[in-house]
Amino acid sequence: MAVAPQLRALLHAVNALLRKRRYHAALAMLKGFRNGAVYGAKIRAPHALVMTFLFRSGSLQEKLRAILQATYTHSRNLACFVFTYKGLCALQAHVQGETYQVHSFLAAFIGGLLVFGGNSNINSQINMYLLSRVLFALCRLGVEKGYIPEPRWDPFPLFTGLVWGLVLWLFEYHRPTLQPSLQSSMTYLYQDSNVWHDISDFLLYNKSLPS
């Protein structure tokens, strides 16, 4: 019973600290680290689970280890990036006395080099994911600012055709240039569907089970 008042006092002190504006930048870095770790795990765990059991060979233990490793790496990298980005933004604002748009770019540029600069499968997937969205956003910004004429018709169908035309051409004739996970997915869809021996690997399974 003597613990409860002490715990309440500790929680009161922690909450009082969290409300102090003078520590806001440092605390925002810590919460950003927390949110990056949680979000990275939420995003990577289900993706790694599906991709590993669909396309990876090996024992159950090896597959689980691969899932945990991928989840940990994504979670750690995203947490470290958010922590670095928010810290560098706060540092620049403190040095210059106010916030400028270039602060965001410089902080993310340095954080990206430090955290996501290693050429690994996970970093590659994250960077490719961001690249497509950045290109979309830049096109919209260009139209919004008047640098790009606003289309008179919806360009999305043409964009879609170009994307699918290019990716299938690359897969069929320049496959090594594609990311390994994309190669695996497209092999399953377009190459494995050319091969079967009987009803078992035509309908029930992708490939024949060992006899």
TrEMBL record:
A Pfam short name: Tim17
Range of residues in the leader sequence: none
Taxonomic superkingdom: Eukaryota
Transmembrane segments: none
InterPro entries, per the entry: Pmp4 (IPR019531)
Entry GO terms, CC: peroxisomal membrane
Name used for this protein in its record: Peroxisomal membrane protein 4
Source organism of the structure: Ailuropoda melanoleuca
